[in-house]
Amino acid sequence: MxxxxxxxxxxxxxxxxxxxxxxxxxxxxxxxxxxxxxxKWPEPKIVTPGEENRLPPxxxxxxxxxxxxxxxxxxxNWTVRDGIALAGKxxxxxxxxxxxxxxxxxxxxxxxxxxxxxxxxNSGLFLMGIYEIQILDSxxxxxxxxxxxxxxxxxxxxxxxxxxxxxxxxxxDVFWTRPRFAEDGSLxxxxxxxxxxxxxxxxxxxxxxxDTPYHRPPEYKQxxxxxxxxxxxxxxxVAFRNIWVREIEPIVGKRTSAPYIRDGETGKKTFLKx
Length: 274
Ligand code: MG
Known about the structure:
By secondary structure, the protein is mainly beta. It has one helix at residues 3-31; strands spanning 34-36, 39-40, 61-64, 72-73, 79-81, 84-86, 92-98, 101-108, 123-127, 131-135, 170-177, 180-181, 187-189, 192-197, 200-207, 227-231, 239-247, 254-255, 260-262, 269-271. It folds into two domains: 3-43 and 253-271; 61-247, Jelly Rolls (Sandwich), CATH 2.60.120.
């Protein structure tokens, strides 16, 4: 058998084999029972992503795009140059308020590095102005672990240390679920945070114990559902760029029946207990 004939006959065999599989699959699909949830879902909104994942998607609130800090209270006391903002005197506080949200921040520790421990490249991202995920030059810089970069300050260290060297850009992508309070002020559900540092998961649905002060244990105090984000001045000129926030809410479906199994042949529905 010549090579050409062998090739064409195996190609023909491949065609019939694939057709056979497809026919078998469609027959079994038609006959298979199917599970249906009984929930009518709205179509998820289309969000055009940024050209790169670090750039703001179409539905983001852009808090700093390199031009100015006009969306921040006290922005005039920080320095903006060459598309970056340098931490200056006092915290900056966003004029917008957020509840559950996704936050993207890029930061870079001063180079050459100065100081050590908590004194080196210290800033912080405060969700709702209350709950700090630490920003610190934690590249070859030892400090208490629940105070290093990516820590929820004094509550938990990050699972791993993904900090880049000073002068390089770090990214935080933070997924925040705010705490819920009952009308009497008691805590209904705690805050949760998931965070990715330079593409590395560092906090996985961590349950916050409360706020994050230096001088006392964490506690929850009732507050508004939406509050500003703030960035810390800790005396170190940490650089920032590309800061944006997306408000998030779960997609909500409407239950139209109990879940059921639909018989593939008869179409008969067998309802299941929810
Ligand atoms: Mg800090």
